[in-house]
Structures are given as structure tokens and as C-alpha cells.
């Protein structure tokens, strides 16, 4: 899949415990392994802040609620989860808001790699996946969402997004379907 990258978004030690599906990480690891085997770049997108959170605004309801020190370089919860940890040479993009593009150099990384097709995974479907999909669509990227490679604390919200909203702007498939398509 030339010009394609797999985005693994917000799959961090401090976020993964919120996922109610015990099979989520093994499924996501299959997607990451399939991408690596097929030579598809894996880009890890993480939420991260400087010590003291100078990027955080009290007007931002979601981020204002973060405890001091959360998702800073000293926070072990900021690390990419060990089950899908980056390998040498894989990009780690740090974002400052919900979308993978907000406050990050993701677009520069994608352009430099001549990537025009994004395969989206991550936590949460209603957060980083939705926001990134909307922005990427407006930037004219081709999009695929791995429905079971995304997770949300609310299964009904996940279902509505993956079955009704995302198909308007992306192909929506399962991890297994996507991995098979790489062969």
C-alpha cells in the first residue's frame, strides 16, 4: 500500500485502562504487525505537554481537567503502550489537542513521506479518531478507519460513529480485513 500510513493514536499507558474491551490491544497489535510486515509506516500519535502544562487553557473543558503532571515527559502514563510500542525509525508525533494535527508536526511528517492515505486507529473513537478524521478529510487525505482498531468508553457512540458517521468520509473495515488486504 504505497503512500499509506497507519496512525496509532493516543494508545498510551494512561489511556488504555479506560478501554472496556480486553481484546482491543491484541487486535491493534495485529494491525501494527501487519503494517510493519507490509512495509506500511506506523506513526504513533500521543498527547503530550510540557511540565507545568503551559499549553493548557482553562477554557478547554477536557484539558483543564487534567491533573498536574499528566502527559508530561515525567509521566509514565504518557508512554505508548508496550503492546504497540514504537520500533526504531517509527515516528512519534506529539499533539497538544484532540486532533492528531492540532499542535503537532503530523502534516509535515506525512508530506515528507509522500503519504496521502491514512489508516486510523486509536482511543477514543469519539475523540482523537473523530477529530483527526474530520481534519484529514478537509485536508484531502484518503481515509480508512479500522473500526475494531478504535475504542471508546461508550460502545453506542463507537457504533454510531463507525457505522453511520465515518463511512461518509472514509472506508471503514475491520483489522482482519485490512491486514488481509496487505497480502
TrEMBL record:
* SUPFAM superfamilies hit by this protein: Isochorismatase-like hydrolases (SSF52499)
Any matching Pfam family: Isochorismatase
Q: Does the keyword Hydrolase apply?
A: yes
GO molecular-function annotation terms?
hydrolase activity
Where does the record place the Isochorismatase-like domain?
4-177
Q: Which UniProt keywords apply?
A: Hydrolase
Listed Gene3D superfamilies: Isochorismatase-like (3.40.50.850)
Q: Does Zinc show up as a keyword for this record? A: no
Q: What is this protein called?
A: Cysteine hydrolase
Which organism is this protein's natural source? Actinoallomurus vinaceus
